[in-house]
Design goal:
single chain, alpha/beta, Ribosomal Protein L15, Chain: K, domain 2, 4 helices, 7 strands
């Protein structure tokens, strides 16, 4: 349609442009509220179609989750000790995993030597394997996981 035939062109200068009383379409009431008003009420269909995830939360995002950044298995302790380990005055083999950037020691694999391990967290399986091999675990946490 040509612009000159549009209704808005015919209504120019008519003060209300087809909206009736003064200011009838100017305020927030003509929009159904300001901003995101009505998303749970009269704009529900629009919310479902355009923003289906607007309400609620992600059920897999726990607020008290325990984040473990770096971990290491028991099977890797020999290689790490060969590179970074040291023996103290009494001849104990000490391996400080916290200083190497590891957060948790896991129990995968087998251990050959008796190590004294310093780490933030340790699994029950890893602790059992190290103690069975004659070593000990010094964990920085209250309880082991």
């Amino acid at each position: 349609m040509a612009t000159r035939f549009r209704k808005s062109r015919r209504q120019r200068g008519s003060r209300y442009c087809g909206w009736g009383q003064v200011g009838q379409h100017r305020q927030a009431g003509s929009r159904g509220g300001i901003g995101g008003a009505g998303k749970h009420k009269h704009f529900w269909i629009r919310t479902v179609i355009e923003e289906p995830d607007h309400f609620g939360h992600d059920p897999f995002n726990s607020f008290n989750r325990n984040i473990v950044g770096q971990w290491i298995n028991v099977r890797d302790l020999d290689a790490v000790f060969a590179k970074y380990g040291k023996a103290d005055d009494k001849g104990k083999v000490v391996l400080d995993l916290t200083a190497l950037g590891y957060d948790k020691l896991l129990g995968g694999g087998k251990i050959s030597g008796a190590y004294t391990i310093k780490v933030g967290k340790v699994s029950e399986g890893a602790k059992a394997k190290i103690v069975a091999a004659g070593g000990e675990v010094i964990a920085n946490e209250h309880d082991s996981e």
